[in-house]
Amino acid sequence: MNRRIFVSLSVALVGLMFTAPVIRGQDQNQGNRWSQDDTSRIVSEVQKQIGSLPDYSVFDWITFGIQGKTLVLKGYASRPILKEEVGRVVKGIHGIESVDNQIKVLPLSNNDDRIRVAVYNLIYSSPSLGKYNANQGGIRGRGTVARMAGGITVDPPIGFHAIHIIVDNGHVTLYGSVLNSGDATMATMRANTAPGAFSIDNDLVVEGSGSRSENVKH
């Protein structure tokens, strides 16, 4: 079986490092894969390159894996440009022989944009969840009405966000990391009150548990 390593982008919050679980397999042909040192270097460089992209926002979620010496990109991009940029920046990393870009570009939808704004405000305006947002609050000020009507995808909130919000044809999935299961539950409960959302899936990882919080669907 080909060796696969799937990880999500590392993000730091109040001195903690959040990472998704790493899944490892066996590769019978040692010449078809990187050494452990090369793998660590490449994973670190991929995380750095993707994490530094200005178009990567709270409304995107990118993961990547390794199959042999091919980098497999997965996840969701709210704009086609992000998928293209991710593929471009990782191609130049030494040791990567090919890139399999399976990132899904989310549909262009004013309704989905309204849901993004609503879920964002519901989660990040919560006193208990504000610590996961570099901006410390919801979307405020001028332009909010325009964003609610569409446009948040091309003008997303900037800064670090531990909880990413993926909206696909009205269906919402929360990705990222939180400090405890209570915060994961709170994020789901608040997102569930967003007008127009058809379903809410919780795919958050609880820090230190090494596993996702209990998946809740509404």
Properties at a glance:
10 strands; disordered C terminus; 2 domains; 3-stranded mixed sheet; 5-stranded mixed sheet; globular; about 220 residues; alpha/beta; Alpha-Beta Plaits; 5 helices; single chain
Structure, explained:
This protein is of the alpha/beta class and 218 residues long. It has two domains: 7-105, Alpha-Beta Plaits, CATH 3.30.70; 110-206, no CATH class. It is built from five helices and ten strands. Strands 1, 4, 5, 6 and 7 form a five-stranded mixed beta sheet that branches. A three-stranded mixed beta sheet has the order 8-9-10. Helix 1 (36-51) packs antiparallel against helix 2 (80-91) and helix 3 crosses helix 5. The protein starts with 6 loop residues before the first strand and ends in a 12-residue tail after the last strand.
